Task: structure prediction
Amino acid sequence: MKVAILAGGLGSRLGEETHITPKPMVGIGGYPILWHIMKIYSHYGFNDFVVLTGYKHEIINEYFLNFYKHTSDLTVDLSNDSVEIHKTRSEPWKVTLAYTGRDTMTGGRIKKAQNYLGNEPFMLTYGDGVGNIDVLSLLNCHKKSEKIVTLTAIQPQGRFGTLEIEKGGRVSSFQEKPENGGSWINGGFMVCQPEVFDYIPDDDTMPFEQAPLKNLAKDGQLNAYHHYGFWRPMDMLKDKQDLNQMWAENKAPWKIWKD
Result:
C-alpha cells in the first residue's frame, strides 16, 4: 500500500525558517520532519511513498536524489574532487516526488497524484505531524469500517490554561495546558479507498478538509480511528523547539523504530 504525504504547503507560521526551506524539510535532530514521518510508516512495513510537493519542491527533490550524501559519513578531498564514503545509511524506500503546484490546496494536490496512487487503497498524511500512531491498528479499523476514508482523531494538548468561572466571576478551578480540550480533531494519518477521488473536484483551490471531507461525512463514508497516545504538529517555532528537545533527550514518543 502506498503512502501519500502532503508536503507542498508554505508553513508561514514557522516564520523565517520556511523562507529558506519547505516546512516538511525543517529539521528534528538533524533529520527533516518528513524523514521522521516516513520512518513511522516504514516501521510498520509501508515503504512506497508518494510525496506531494509544491513550495520549494526542488529542496525536497535534492534531498532524496542525494540521500546517501545527506545520511553518510564522507571525506571530501578538495585537491582532486574525490569523495570517500565511510558509512552509509540506507532505507528500504521507494519515493515518488510529485510536484503538485506551488499554491495548490490539499484537495488539489491529492487529485493531481491520482495517477501515481492508482486504483487501490492508500494511506495519506500531512508532512508536518508526528505521533506514535499504530498504523496497523489504524488500517484494521479502516477495513472493519468499510468506509471510504478513515482519519486519525486526536485530542491535542491545550496551548493555554483553562478556567472554570462561576457566577459573579469567581474562578473555581484552573488547569495549566490540559492534555485535551474535550474535542477530537483530524490528526492526519488517514487511509483512503480510491473512491475518495470522486469527492475531490479538479480544482487547485479546494482544501481536502472542506467539501471533500464534509461530503464524505454527510454520506456516512468518513470513519475515525481514535488515537490516545502522542501526537504533535510542527505548526510554530515553539513546536519545533519542543520536538527537538524531546529528540535530544531521547524522549521522542514518535520514535517507534530501532536505529
Remarks:
- The mean pLDDT is 89.
- The CA atoms of residues 21 and 56 lie 7 Å apart.
- The longest strand covers residues 2-7.
